[in-house]
Design a protein that fits this description.
- The protein is mostly helical and 300 residues long.
- It has 2 domains: 1-190, Arp2/3 complex 21 kDa subunit ARPC3 (Orthogonal Bundle); 192-300, no CATH class.
- It is built from 13 helices and no strands.
- The protein has helices at 2-24, 30-58, 62-83, 88-114, 118-136, 144-149, 151-177, 187-191, 198-211, 217-248, 253-265, 268-281, 283-291.
- Helix 10 packs across helix 12 (268-281).
- The protein is globular and about 55 Å long.
Length: 300
């Protein structure tokens, strides 16, 4: 009985942490939820999550409740697909696509039936974001329409980051709450992440859409949205390359954490380019050749 009470308390704490993170940073909201789903099961995950959604809705925080529902769906779909044996990459891809599509359809239906002017709503929110940026750095100049054009990719990128952070932090949260990891962690699957070859050509199409001076602005809009998504995906491939280097040359945990912080917040584009270059340079295999020249087919 004591164990059940303790588990229930931990499950509620994880759910509340997810809701709090969702309200503060959004992309961190999925991490506690994935831990909740992994260690306390489907039923407790759904009951506690939906109770929190109802609480947020009754308190009048409708937008937060909607955002939290998207995170719950992302984690729930990912966990179910993974249990079916689809693997980390396929489960992640399908869950992001399904939740992005669901969010787009639901948002469209809400706008249609509530008779809200979507353009005006997006412009107001974009102006609020730009004002916050100007408070931090007055020299930054951002066009409202340019920002609105990137909303579709921003939605997809937020789900990609949410799921990736959840997987990366899964082991840390397990240790924090004293839970035993029954399934194999996908931490190392994420660090060995590699995009299919076709993604290179999708990225080149995005670059062409942005770089070429075409008559229709639609091509530029499509191009920038494609580039945003592909840059995020290649960032994780670049991160995998960097951590392969760390593991190959036995870099200390403290230095790894420091470099991870720098790469995420200061070197995002550089790491994305590194991931893109890995297609031609095959950096991880070259690293492995230095330490194990007889095992050329394996990745670090």
């Amino acid at each position: 009985m004591k164990s059940r009470g303790s588990d229930l308390l931990k499950a509620i704490s994880l759910g509340l942490s997810g809701l709090l993170m969702c309200s503060l940073t959004y992309v961190m909201g999925a991490a506690p939820l994935l831990a909740l789903r992994s260690y306390y099961g489907r039923i407790l995950f759904l009951l506690s999550s939906l109770a929190l959604v109802a609480g947020a809705f009754l308190a009048g925080h409708y937008f937060l409740a909607a955002l939290f529902v998207a995170q719950i769906l992302l984690v729930a779909i990912y966990a179910e697909l993974e249990l079916q044996g689809l693997g980390f990459a396929i489960s992640g891809l399908l869950s992001v696509l399904l939740v992005s599509g669901f969010t787009a359809v639901l948002s469209g239906a809400y706008v249609h039936f509530s008779k809200i002017n979507m353009t005006t709503l997006l412009q107001d929110r974009a102006k609020a974001v730009i004002e916050n940026v100007h408070r931090l750095n007055a020299s930054v100049n951002i066009d409202v329409d340019y920002l609105i054009a990137q909303v579709p990719s921003g939605l997809v990128v937020s789900f990609i980051l949410s799921l990736a952070l959840a997987v990366l932090l899964e082991r840390s949260i397990a240790a924090l709450i004293g839970a035993k990891l029954e399934k194999k962690s996908n931490y190392y699957s994420l660090l060995s992440f590699e995009l299919p070859d076709v993604c290179v050509w999708i990225t080149i199409i995005g670059i062409a859409g942005v770089g070429l001076k075409l008559n229709s602005p639609l091509f530029k809009t499509l191009g920038i949205n494609i580039l945003n998504i592909m840059a995020t995906l290649y960032f994780f491939q670049g991160l995998a390359v960097a951590f392969s280097f760390f593991r190959t040359f036995r870099i200390g945990i403290l230095w790894q954490a420091l470099w991870a912080f720098v790469m995420v917040f200061q070197l995002f584009l550089f790491v994305a380019v590194l991931g893109f270059a890995d297609y031609w340079l095959d950096i991880r295999k070259r690293l492995y050749r230095k330490v194990a020249p007889t095992k050329l087919d394996k990745r670090v």
